[in-house]
From TrEMBL:
Family note: Belongs to the glycosyl hydrolase 13 family.
SMART domains: Aamy, Aamy_C
Species per Swiss-Prot/TrEMBL record: Pseudoalteromonas xiamenensis
InterPro entries: A-amylase/branching_C (IPR006048), A-amylase_C (IPR031319), Alpha_amylase (IPR006046), GH (IPR017853), GH13_cat_dom (IPR006047), Glyco_hydro_b (IPR013780)
The enzyme's E.C. designation: 3.2.1.1
Pfam families: Alpha-amylase, Alpha-amylase_C
GO biological process: carbohydrate metabolic process
Protein name: Alpha-amylase
Residue ranges annotated for the Glycosyl hydrolase family 13 catalytic domain, each copy included: 30-376
Ranges of residues in domain Alpha-amylase C-terminal: 386-473
């Protein structure tokens, strides 16, 4: 017998034949990104080259108004005037950015700092001088009296939270009509140049009614989301702000972080309102934000880019799950210095993109994150989940009705499950590993096949995820012709020997039917996808083995393969052999499909039956490090003349190495 060595092996991704292309038309955009500290020129270029094509709805930009001088990122949160001059660029550059993003289908949301002005005295980046509570546009009487917000105030003193000073920043008297008029003037200036929405910074520190008064003077209908940190037990609660627009849901970032870092993903089946969060339609949600990722703004044990693969998985969950309006964080490295401003070099440097290492992170460009944005855009029509599945631990999967299906594996082992996707039959492009071409003929990532009953064999490597949706279904692959096909070939083998098959349609026969396989070998090959990737010895050979053909190793296939790999099986694992191995767990050993005994090597694939001859195709076996090629076969009832076994697509075919006898039966 063959003792199949168990070595650890990390399953890579299966790449389809596709070429990389732009994604096709974008369905309703549903996600925005915070390009934290990006310059206006960089934002504009990013809208044109990436955000628009990839379906991001909007960008939250850093505060565009004049702020105090200094290198720290947080100088942007100390306003000096409402002139549109800032580290992000000039007014002209800002106006240019808004227009170019709009033309690319991307809105701009401004982070509006309206609760306070700069602390102390100094100069703004546009040259405006100020002293304590004395600015060209404001005077002492436009501010609340000086008092500090103490920690305990957050729990029991709403007046102090809103009238005293947040980190010593002079607190504007937002109740005064003069101040309200100035603030509305600033927001209206932004609207006049095309800004589509606002993040209202430090909203908890302003009475909801003051914000309402300002907004009542604002033109048009901008999207408004108010930053209110409310983890529960606050003197000022998030719900007070619902009347003004959306509100940040900080419970989301905290609880998602806790669950991904130290909980179980299986808990997430009812994430959202059932966890004490606000109504979904009011909530702006995020995995992390510019404050809590670097220990500011109350912080918390959140997941950030520093967590690597875990970060992508948390974003995939947020974007796939129907709750709230999600914001993707796009940050820069802060692990040396949590006060540091953005890198001094641009993101876009000619054709170069400076997203790496200690600099700009560009999380929004991670394939998993942008792919999940595409998933959200294409599943927005079904605002609920179905087919929830979990393993009781950290592997989960769910559908968005018939619009999409996602699986997330936050474990160290492979996830392999046959699951109900809710999708219609066909071959889909996994949008987390690649993109579907504009004509939907190819996928630059792996593909997943859904059968006529909606089921798919879902393979997710450790710390990985897959997602398919109705907009990423490959066309022209006549998916209805795909059928699970099994071939058993019995051969006495020994440890260290492995069996492969080659096969397809005979070239001479094909020529008689007008197909020239000498010039195009694919006309005589049968597209396949292996169903069993669990055997650590054979899984590498099955990766990238896209055809049963006569050629041997495919360009995409693991080295050492002699064709399509089979696995050793038996009907009953002999107890004398120690730990029982099964095809369902180990990829080899016992399988209920084997009803005959030891040494029945098994090929288990989904096969495109379109190229078969009335359902028939040929196979010939090869034992590597052993008997080599089997001898010629004369099979009764063959559809045409050949020296090989004939098997039927969609059935269980049983042969013996070098022997003519044949058993073909249904599953
Ligand atoms: C926010 N939301 O409500 C922002 O998300 C957050 O980033 C802002 O704080 C804060 N509110 C005020 O807009 C950041 C940063 C603070 C920083 C302030 C003002 O987290 O650390 O405070 O911006 O620049 C800094 C110093 C602080 C000092 C203060 C005034 O870190 O020590 O307080 O300036 O000089 C004495
Ligand atoms: Ca205030």
């Amino acid at each position: 017998m063959t003792t199949t060595a168990l070595k650890t092996f990390k399953i890579g991704v299966l790449f389809g034949l596709g070429t990389l292309c732009q994604s096709s038309a974008i369905a309703a955009p549903t996600t925005f990104v915070h390009l934290f500290e990006w310059s206006w020129q960089d934002v504009a270029k990013e809208c044109e080259t990436y955000l628009g094509p990839r379906g991001y709805a909007a960008v939250q930009v850093s505060p565009p108004n004049e702020h105090v001088t200094g290198d720290q990122w947080w100088t942007r949160y100390q306003p000096v005037s409402y002139a549109l001059t800032s580290r992000g660029g000039s007014r002209a550059e800002f106006v240019d950015m808004v227009a170019r993003c709009k033309a690319a289908g991307v809105n701009i949301y401004v982070d509006a700092v309206i609760n306070h002005m700069a602390a102390g005295s100094g100069q703004g980046v546009a040259g405006t001088s100020f002293t304590l509570k004395q600015f060209p546009i404001y005077n002492t009487w436009d501010f609340h009296d000086t008092c500090a917000i103490n920690n305990e105030d957050y729990g029991n003193n709403p007046w102090r939270v809103q009238n005293c000073e947040l980190v010593s920043l002079p607190d504007l008297n937002t109740g005064s009509s003069y101040v309200q008029g100035k603030l509305a003037g600033y927001l209206n200036d932004l609207i006049s140049v095309g800004v589509a929405g606002f993040r209202l910074d430090a909203s908890k520190h302003m009475a909801a009614s003051d914000i309402a008064s300002v907004l009542s003077q604002v033109n048009g209908a901008p999207l408004v989301f108010q930053e209110v940190i409310d983890q529960g037990g606050e003197a000022v609660s998030a719900s007070e702000y619902f009347g003004n627009g959306l509100v940040t849901e900080f419970k989301y970032t905290t609880k998602l972080g806790e669950t991904f870092k130290s909980g179980k993903l299986a808990w997430l089946s009812n994430f959202g309102e059932a966890w004490g969060m606000m109504p979904s339609y009011k909530a702006v949600v995020f995995v992390d934000n510019h404050d809590n990722q670097r220990g500011h703004g109350g912080a918390g044990n959140v997941v950030t880019y520093q967590d690597g693969a875990l970060y992508d998985l948390a974003n995939v969950f947020m974007l796939a799950y129907p709750y709230g309006y999600p914001k993707v964080m796009s940050s820069f490295d802060y692990h040396h210095d949590t006060d540091a401003g953005g890198p001094t070099y641009p993101v876009h440097d000619g054709a170069n993109l400076n997203c790496f290492g200690d600099g700009w992170q560009c999380e929004h460009r991670h394939q998993k994150i942008s792919g999940a944005v595409d998933f959200r855009n294409n599943t927005n029509d079904v605002w609920q989940i179905s087919n929830w599945w979990d393993n009781g631990n950290n592997q989960i999967a769910f559908s968005r009705g018939a619009s999409g299906f996602v699986a997330i594996n936050r474990e160290n082992g492979t996830m392999q499950q046959t699951l109900q996707t809710g999708l219609s039959v066909g071959r889909y492009c996994d949008v987390l590993s690649g993109q579907i071409s504009a004509d939907k003929s190819s996928c630059s990532g792996q593909t997943i096949d859904v059968d006529a009953n909606g089921f798919a064999l879902v393979n997710v490597p450790a710390m990985n995820a897959v997602a398919i949706h109705k907009g990423a279904k490959l066309e022209g692959s006549s998916s209805a012709n795909w059928k699970r096909t099994v071939v058993f070939i019995k051969a006495q083998t020994q440890s260290g020997q492995d069996m492969f098959v080659r096969g397809g349609i005979d070239y001479a026969y094909a020529a008689s039917q007008g197909k020239n396989c000498n010039s195009n070998a694919l006309l005589c090959a049968l597209p396949i996808r292996h169903n069993n990737l669990l055997n650590t010895t054979t899984q590498n050979w099955k990766q990238g083995d896209n055809y049963l053909d006569w050629q041997g190793l495919e360009a995409t296939q693991g080295a050492g393969a002699e064709g399509s790999a089979l696995d050793w099986t038996t009907n009953i694992w002999p107890s004398a052999w120690g730990t029982k191995r099964t095809v369902s767990v180990d990829g080899y050993g016992e399988t209920p499909l084997n009803q005959w005994g030891d040494h029945y090597w098994m090929l288990d694939v989904d096969m495109d039956c379109a190229n078969t001859v009335n359902g028939w195709f040929e196979v010939k076996a090869f034992v590597k490090n052993g008997q080599g090629w089997e001898g010629d076969i004369q099979q009764a009832g063959a559809p045409y003349q050949s020296k090989n076994h004939f098997a039927q697509c969609g059935r269980v075919n049983v042969f013996e190495f070098g022997q003519n006898q044949t058993l073909i039966q249904d599953f």
